[in-house]
Each structure stands twice: as C-alpha cells, then as structure tokens.
C-alpha cells in the first residue's frame, strides 16, 4: 500500500484504471481523506490494476458511503463486488443498510445475500411485464404529461416490484414503452380529428 500512497501520479492512474472520469479523479485527489479511503477500498478489492467502469463506480460509492460502524465487514462486500456477485447501486445500498444494522457483530451470510438480492436474476420478460403494469396504472398521468413525465418516478414504481433489476435494462424498456404509448395516442387523436372534420 505504501508504494502507491507515496506517489500521487500512481494513485491518479489507479483511480483512472477503475473507470472513473478525470473530473471525479481530480476531486478525489484534492480531498486527502477521501483519496486515502478510495485507494484503500480499491486495494481491499484487489482491483488496483483496473476493472470495468460499472465496478469502479461501485467502489467509489463504497468509499463514500460505507457505514463506519461495520468497517470490519467492508472487505466482504468488496469481494462480492470484485467477483461480480454485487453489480448494482441498489445491491450496494442494501448491503450498507444490512451492515449498518449488524455493526461489527457476526452476521448470517445467507441473510446478507438475501437482503442484497445476490443470485437473483430479473429476466427481460419480467422487466417488460413490470413496466407494462406501471404504465397501465399510470397511463392517464403519462398521457397528460407526455414527454415531461418524470421517468425517475416510473423507474421507482418498477423497482418496487423488482429491486434487483438492471437499471439500464429498466430505463431502456421504459423509453421503448413510453415512445410506443405516446405514438399510439397521437395516432388515435389524429383519427379522431379526421372523423370530426368529416362530421363537420
């Protein structure tokens, strides 16, 4: 650890190697306490030679928000992240909640995995069905607000049903179904206008 801490340039390279953008890296380097914490997290995860950006962002999150009362369990979470068993922000935040309650005490690994959705796979079909259900429930609001509709609110409704769903897949499916719903509504209104002209 000391060889990396000794050189600011090396630390910068380590931060860049986990996929963080230059601006985020520069901010981390200015704050000595956070810089040291982030470096420690990366070393604990054994990812100082680099990783995917999605993994790097989770490491950054751990460095920022991991509960201080359960630091003894941080290496466990980092191994789950490094091995691809924890892959999303909701899973990491669920782990924070779990370890904050447990503190430094012994914990049941099965309960931890269950509380973080480890091993839970949400299929594309499940995401599609959940988004359709939310759109059916919120159809009036969506059609009133059209393109101004708050997509984050729709995402949160879907996450209630599937908290471990992949956020990118969810967002893509919401965009597809939103476009489809708005196009169908526009066509329907166009047909209605033509009928009204014929009647007039």
Task: Chart the SSEs and their pairings.
Blueprint: H1 2-6, H2 8-17, H3 22-30, H4 32-44, H5 53-65, H6 74-82, H7 89-102, H8 109-115, H9 124-145, H10 151-161, H11 167-199
Helix pairs in contact: 2-3, 4-5, 5-6, 9-10, 9-11, 10-11
Domain Glutaminyl-tRNA synthetase class Ib non-specific RNA-binding: 13-167
InterPro entries: Gln-tRNA-synth_Ib_RNA-bd_N, Gln-tRNA-synth_Ib_RNA-bd_N_1, Gln-tRNA-synth_Ib_RNA-bd_N_2
Protein name: Glutaminyl-tRNA synthetase class Ib non-specific RNA-binding domain-containing protein
Describe the structure.
The protein has 200 residues and is mostly helical. It has three domains: 54 residues, no CATH class; 55 residues, no CATH class; 76 residues, Arc Repressor Mutant, subunit A, CATH 1.10.10. Helix content is 73%, strand content 0%. The protein has eleven helices and no strands. α9 runs antiparallel to α10, α9 crosses α11 and α10 crosses α11. The longest helix is centred in the C-terminal third of the chain and has 33 residues. The N and C termini lie far apart (81 Å).
